[in-house]
Description:
Blueprint: E1 2-5, E2 8-11, E3 16-22, E4 31-37, E5 43-49, E6 56-58, E7 66-71, E8 76-81, E9 90-97, E10 111-112, E11 116-121
Parallel strand pairs: 2-11
Antiparallel strand pairs: 1-3, 3-8, 4-5, 4-9, 5-6, 7-8, 9-10, 9-11
Amino acid sequence: QLQAYGGGSVQAGGSLRLSCAxxxxxxxxxxxxWFRQAPGKERDFVAGITxxxxxxxxxxxxxxxxxxxxxxAKNTVYLRTNGLKSDDTAVYYCAADRREMIFITAWQWDHxxxxxxxxxxx
Length: 122
């Protein structure tokens, strides 16, 4: 089970740190990722990280502003979001997959947590 939290309402230019805690099984050997979904839109890839942390991938829209990281000892993955824009407003979901690849399409991921809302006001 994956539990995402840390969302909230911020002004443009602000920052948030999202967390995704895993329970029930260890996800330390899983690739982890973050997706987001705005109202009326598809669920889009934001960032992903392999189990070792050696490989990371980001959507072009967040490169240089967002940073994904993980703490396998705590079974937790983080998404640091800086320089938030109104376009970043969405529900953010964490995902996990057993394969050592970072997929950018949502349907390829095995496990999903519930989302956490991020609202950015300009």
